[in-house]
Amino acid sequence: MDYRILIVTAVMILLDIAVGFVGAVKEKSVQSGKLREGLWRKAGFVGLIVVACVIEYAVAYAELGFDVPTVLAVCTYIIVTEAVSVFENLCVLNPALVEGPLGSIFSMEAKVR
Q1: Cα(93)–Cα(50) distance, integer angstroms
Q2: Long-range contact list for 86-92, CB < 8 A, 24+ apart?
Q3: Which of 13, 72, 4 has the alpha carbon at shortest distance from 44?
Q4: In terms of pTM, does the model score above 0.90?
Q5: Cα–Cα distance for residue pair 108/17, rounded to 1 Å
Q6: Most buried of the four, 33, 66, 69, 73, by CB within 10 Å?
Q7: What is the pLDDT of residues 59-93, one digit of tens each?
Q8: Measured CA angle at 68 (ends 63, 73), to 5 deg
Q9: SS3 per residue for the chain
Q10: Nearest CA among 16, 10, 19, 14 for reference residue 82
């Protein structure tokens, strides 16, 4: 297994936490409950990665005759999810991003004033 995908996934998770926190500070809306809920979601992502690693490890010994790239699939899903979340949080920091090419893809009214 290529561990670089795990590093990229961890960086995206940490980046989302950091940018989300900075956005909450900017909006003067830091709430421990929201932070706690977000951290539980991140813990769920980490748990999903652990399960995927165990499955990939087990498949190597089960000799099914095919490879199951579960870690890559799970990490790709998490990276895309975190990238969208980071962009949403960046739009809180810089509302002009909503008018840009990426902003047109997302419906940002709910997060950006």
Answers
A1: 33
A2: 86/12, 86/15, 86/16, 86/19, 89/16, 89/19, 89/20, 89/22, 89/23, 90/19, 90/23, 92/23, 92/26, 92/27
A3: 13
A4: no
A5: 19
A6: 69
A7: 878 877 767 789 999 999 999 999 999 999 999 89
A8: 165
A9: CCCHHHHHHHHHHHHHHHHHHHHHHHCCCCCHHHHHHHHHHHHHHHHHHHHHHHHHHHHHHHCCCCCCCHHHHHHHHHHHHHHHHHHHHHHHHCHHHHHCCCCCCCCCCCCCC
A10: 16
Nearest to 56 by CA among 85, 17, 28, 48: 48
Beta carbons within 8 Å of 87's beta carbon, 6+ residues apart: 97, 102, 106
Reading the block at residue 10, the tokens are: 């961890």
- pLDDT, residue 18, reads 96
